[in-house]
Design brief:
Distance between the termini: 82 Å
Bound molecules: NADPH dihydro-nicotinamide-adenine-dinucleotide phosphate
Structural class: alpha/beta
Order of helices and strands: EHEHEHEHEHEHEHEEEHHHHHHHHHHHHH
Strand content: 5-15%
CATH architecture of the largest domain: Orthogonal Bundle
CATH class of the largest domain: Mainly Alpha
Shape: globular
CATH topology of the largest domain: N-(1-d-carboxylethyl)-l-norvaline Dehydrogenase, domain 2
Helix content: 40-55%
Largest sheet: 8 strands, mixed
Number of strands: 10
Number of domains: 3
Length: 475
């Protein structure tokens, strides 16, 4: 049997697990590692001689558990879904009171709530932890969103604060609330990521199809934008993506990659949860739908032939600095609206599930390490400074002026794109949401009238209190 020397153990040494284990070892903690294919555990130690003293590979789960110091901390980094339950069922019986199981994969938060309940009364603790930043983040500092009992977080905090990304000296990790809170926030993070990426892709589409720009020129623009309000990891990598050449053909890499986006489901979950909560996360919806449609490439190629004769007016976009400035302002305004939708979804979930999510802290721990990292998140954090109650970011004084200033550009860009037949589903969803949100008199008075006519669903009146039903003429 192994000696109990490890501070924490990682099960699942794929892309994320292996890198997280190395990150933990590098920060001076001893990490036990176990993998279904056990050779990977030994390879992790052998391939990293500088960290080998802090890595304890195990051949069996029994050895793995025996190598952990109590209270034992076991972190699962395996594909989300039933596999997590299977792994917990194998490891749970080997643990004892006070030990902690941590699911660090991209779990559906409903599963996390269920798993948290399942360990109640067993003496074991369960933590659902969202980790963002991909492979590099896991290795050098991810953003970590923790859900579970606050006391349990206390026992993990010293390790998590060391391995997390740092933003100006502050670790990008926090306890966000009980059971599913961490995984829910990770889901919304991914939803916002989808929207942000889709809107950038739509701006690229305008540059390519509306302005006939070459990828090199676009890369220069994105590099420039990365020095101001839009500065972010996603804008930075977009410039890199656009500047890269294919070694085989010498063509820009983006021109040899098929236009079919993949997705693993977290964006879809974000949309589903927003819908259940009655929040219009329309930019995220547009992004998820656009990825879905993009994946139907054969069908689109056929449709392109079917509608080849449908002509759209020539693009109203004109090259030049003014056009670039307009695109930049439009993207910035749309981005604020997309993040406002994500935050509105979290605020609503916080009320619904009594999580008391610290929305400002969430912005703080997203400032570094994760895919949507940016200084813009610092502005969001400031909107919540001192626990300020923010009804919607679009009404926060920090953003009112910026959206008011950028909306005209967004309107111009969306209008020109629509006329030219260039699809901008997320940008136009952002604009429509903004216009609907700021409209004092909407149109669902008609919807209510229809519902009352066909289903006696009743309605409220502007001029009288109470609930009313009208005897509409027979149709
Ligand atoms: P990988 O596919 O790289 O690794 C999966 C790991 O799970 C491997 O160690 C694999 O073992 C193990 N595994 C797979 N199937 C089984 C099984 N049936 N029984 C036991 N072990 C199994 O996944 P990632 O590291 O990319 O992802 C892990 C989790 O992290 C997922 O929930 C993912 O959504 C999440 N995540 C991923 C990110 C990313 O950028 N990749 C970012 C943030 C979160 P073996 O080596 O034997 O195949």
């Amino acid at each position: 049997m192994s000696e109990a020397t490890a501070d924490i153990g990682v099960i699942g040494l794929g892309t994320m697990g292996a890198n997280l284990a190395l990150n933990i070892a590098e920060k001076g903690f001893t990490v036990a590692v176990y993998n279904r294919t056990t050779a990977k555990a030994h390879a992790l130690k052998a391939d990293n001689p500088d960290l080998a003293g802090n890595i304890v590979p195990a051949e069996t789960l029994e050895d793995f558990v025996a190598s952990l110091k109590p209270p034992r901390r076991v972190l699962f980094m395996v594909p989300a879904g039933p596999l997590v339950d299977e792994e917990m069922e194998k490891v749970g019986p080997l643990l004892s009171g006070g030990d902690v199981m941590i699911d660090a994969g991209n779990a559906d938060f409903h599963d996390t709530v269920r798993r948290s309940k399942a360990v109640e009364g067993t003496g074991l603790h369960f933590v659902g932890m969202g980790v963002s930043g991909g492979e590099l983040g896991a290795r050098h500092g991810p953003s970590i969103m923790v859900g579970g009992a606050k006391e349990t977080y206390g026992s993990l905090k010293p390790i998590l604060e060391k391995i997390a990304a740092q933003y100006q000296g502050a670790p990008c990790v926090a306890w966000l609330g009980p059971d599913g809170a961490g995984h829910f926030v990770k889901t919304i993070h991914n939803g916002i990521e989808y929207a942000d990426m889709q809107m950038i892709a739509e701006i690229y589409g305008i540059m390519r199809d509306g302005l006939a720009m070459q990828p090199d020129a676009m890369a220069g623009i994105f590099r420039d934008w990365n020095t101001r309000g839009l500065a972010s990891y996603l804008i930075e990598i977009t410039a890199v993506n656009l500047a890269e050449k294919d070694p085989d053909t010498g063509k820009p890499m983006v021109e040899v990659i098929t236009d079919e986006a993949g997705q693993k489901g977290t964006g879809r979950w974000a949309v589903i949860e927003a819908q259940k909560l009655g929040i219009g996360a329309t930019t995220i919806e547009a992004a998820v739908a656009a990825r879905g449609l993009s994946a139907r490439r054969e069908e689109r190629l056929q449709a392109a032939k079917t509608f080849a004769d449908v002509k759209t007016p020539a693009s109203g976009f004109q090259a030049g600095d003014a056009a670039m400035a307009e695109l930049e302002s439009a993207l910035e305004a749309a981005k604020i609206i997309a993040y406002a939708q994500g935050y509105a979804t979290m605020a609503s979930a916080s009320d619904e599930y009594h999580w008391n999510l610290p929305l400002g802290t969430i912005a703080e721990i997203w400032r570094a390490g994760c895919i949507i990292r940016s200084h813009f998140l610092d502005d969001i954090a400031k909107a919540y400074d001192g626990g300020a109650r923010v009804v919607n970011l679009l009404q926060s004084p920090h953003f009112v002026e910026r959206v008011a200033a950028g909306q005209a550009a967004l309107r111009q860009v969306v209008a020109r794109a629509v006329l030219a037949g260039i699809p901008v589903p997320a940008l136009s969803a952002a604009l429509a949401y903004f216009d609907d949100y700021r409209r004092a008199r909407g149109t669902t008075n008609l919807t209510q009238a229809q519902r009352d006519l066909f289903g006696a669903h009743t309605f409220h009146r502007l001029d009288k209190d109470g609930v009313f039903h009208h005897h509409w003429p027979a149709v």
